[in-house]
Amino acid sequence: MVTQAGFTLLVVLVFLQRGLEQRFSDRNTAALRERGAKDHTPRALSRRMLVLHMAWFAAMLLEVWALDRPFQAPLGIAMATAVLLAQALRYASMQALGLQWTLGLLTLPELGVVDRGIYRCCRHPSVFAVMVEMFALPLVHGAYLTSAVFGCVYTALLVHRTDLEEQALKQDTDYARLLMDRPRYLPLPPTLRVGRGRHS
Fold first, then answer.
1. 0.85 exceeded by the pTM?
2. Cα 132 to Cα 71: distance, rounded to the nearest angstrom
3. Of 47, 46, 45, 76, which Cα lies nearest the Cα of 60?
4. CATH code for the part of the protein at 2-190
5. Which tens digit of pLDDT belongs to each residue from 165-176?
6. Helices (H), the chain
């Protein structure tokens, strides 16, 4: 019961964090639109992802409480660590992108592509962070079903969204020239990369 309550608090904190990120994104989106940014956001896909994300929060809590999932310290600690690392990765992305960090797909050619900070190591660190969280957070308290089902489905949607994002970036910016030699998701220091092929 105590660990379930602690897990619930953790989930609520992550949920509130998502709300703050939405506000940050909305502010940046408004500023970019004022400067003439093109909006490539796929509305239907974004709605599906939002509904699925909200259901993910509810599902992991329901699974932990209704199915009385036990807290297993080794797994729980490992997954909590993964969530924290994913958080750090997301905020490294937000810091590097600044005004250009949004939840939608916007391009503004005059700003160019960000290739500094964490973007020296991969092309989509924030997306990778979300993938990790979708699988790892439910497993902090043994919600295996939520982790497997929602993690796999949401990751598939993220990959599709990334495809659309890269199409827009290649069309409007110098993305292909600056970033296509870097891994798509998994952050790797430049010294660990082999070759200069297109990693997807």
1. yes
2. 19
3. 76
4. 1.20.120.1630
5. 999 999 999 999
6. 2-34, 43-66, 73-97, 125-139, 144-172, 175-179
